[in-house]
């Protein structure tokens, strides 16, 4: 049996305290199966239905690793749509409540680019965005990723369905190769397998059928 107690993990005490105050009593199945490996720095592919708690699985991993004193972009999370990116940012901010001065920035299409460039000028620890807009910033030179050590592809199957393959490739090309890559998806079509072979190293595969 997998241990589902959050305190069985090597999580920072502040994060554990916050999980408790959020009322999360135990890990969901996908969290229990993926978090130990994520916290060890491994690449992980996690497949599970909507509502299975995937955001906290990668969120706790990346927050536990992040050094808030180093004010530079350490994490990039790609999402298929602005709505999903906003949801991920809300969940990450909730999980990060006890980490003071953490800056999480969303960069999505449909928002004036000038405002985003101003926000980028002020810096961030975590970027959550859509592949097209992130690629746009890279092309303009308004965004660089030399200190990113965690790369998350959330809802990877949807991103590929929406035609983001080439934008994902362009973004991945400029990320440091020494990084942890986490891929989350509801389904696992051949295209996902192909991309994971290209951008991940010896990933652990986790698959959860039911939502809990
Ligand atoms: P998914 O991305 O797999 O569709 P989410 O990450 O959006 O799912 O999580 C669904 C909901 O479950 C969110 O409201 C989240 O706050 C909540 N949640 C996540 N993990 C736990 C947990 N361990 N215990 C209770 N609620 C949780
Ligand atoms: Mg999700």
Automatic annotation (TrEMBL):
Residues 4-32 form the DEAD-box RNA helicase Q domain. Keywords: ATP-binding, Helicase, Hydrolase, Nucleotide-binding. It comes from the Bacteria. GO terms for molecular function: hydrolase activity; RNA helicase activity. A motif (Q motif) lies at residues 4-32. Residues 35-206 form the Helicase ATP-binding domain. Belongs to the DEAD box helicase family. This is ATP-dependent RNA helicase DbpA. It comes from Catenovulum sediminis. The lineage of its organism: Bacteria, Pseudomonadati, Pseudomonadota, Gammaproteobacteria, Alteromonadales.
